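Recall from the previous lesson that a structure prediction takes nothing but the amino acid sequence as input. Here we apply that procedure to VWA domain-containing protein from Pikeienuella piscinae. The sequence below is the only information supplied.
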Amino acid sequence: MTGALPPAIRPFVQFAAVLREHRFAVSPDQTIDFIEGVGLLGPRSIEDVRSAARALFAIPPEREAEFDALFRAIFFGQTIAAPAPSEDDDEGETEAHEPGGEIEIEAEEDEEEAGAEATVVERLSHREIVGAEDEALARFARLAPERLPRRRSYRRARARKGDQPDIRRAIRAAARRDGEIMVLPRRRRKERQRRIVLLIDVSASMKAETDAALRFAHALAQAADRVEIFTLGTRLTRITPALAPAGREQALARAASLIADIDGGTRIGDALQAFLAVPRYAGFARGAAVIVLSDGLERGDPAEMVDAVRRLSRAAWTLDWLTPLKADADFAPRTGALSAILPYLDQLGAGGRVEAVADHVLNIARAS
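The prediction returns the following tokens.
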């Protein structure tokens, strides 16, 4: 991808990519800000570039040494060795067999284990997202303006039965009528739609649901006044601007071009931590209705996912987790991560079909 860029910009884009590979929370927006920041600085030395990167990527103090090593590797050509996660990191999957010894072959199960495609390894790819028409999305677009959650604004507007007198209007009316006020005008607080934050798991274990989830995301982006949409896999990708066009095919094509980790590995905890590490993104969740579409089959450190969900629940107005596994009547959270986050969720619902997700979003206001 960097080969198509002007030579002067390549190292800056490559540096952001290398930071992400080493599990720094770097978003595409921060990469753009970094490049623009360097351009504005007109750097007089490489130290100016390093200072801009440290500030715009919000590098935590405990990781500055690692950051400096990566910076030297990219901009000074110094080589470093950093381990990358691989399938071999999974415990218990590799056994050493002595030559000539007996190898016990286990019979394969008839049923595949749920989430068998979930992996911590990053696999980058692109594919076309199918934009089929869906009756459920048309119904959602029709009902959303009235049923999406709303909150009272601090601003006030004139109203016949408001809870406060409108002093300014009263004075203007009195000035026109020689000091007489026939009817005391009133005002009340406005209502506005509450922000909705949609986080979509696009890892391989969610491959069957990804297209439908992104089609719903486009419908939500068109119907809601205030919405932010991200995808989670081994990366965090903000696709809200990509879904702005009203044409579904065009919007989904733009979103697909941004999602590099689609059908790849699963590091939900790291992606959520990246979301919370960017102050702008974390601000989106404050007082919002946050919805996570994911099976919750975390293959990274469960502690990261539990900590991120706990922090999200504190900031959000409501935090709902929709999983396709919930469509099974006998489903019960059994994985360590999914079981541990239950106390922090407002709802654990079904998210396997567009109809279920759309109905859930339309009923958030009633359930809260």
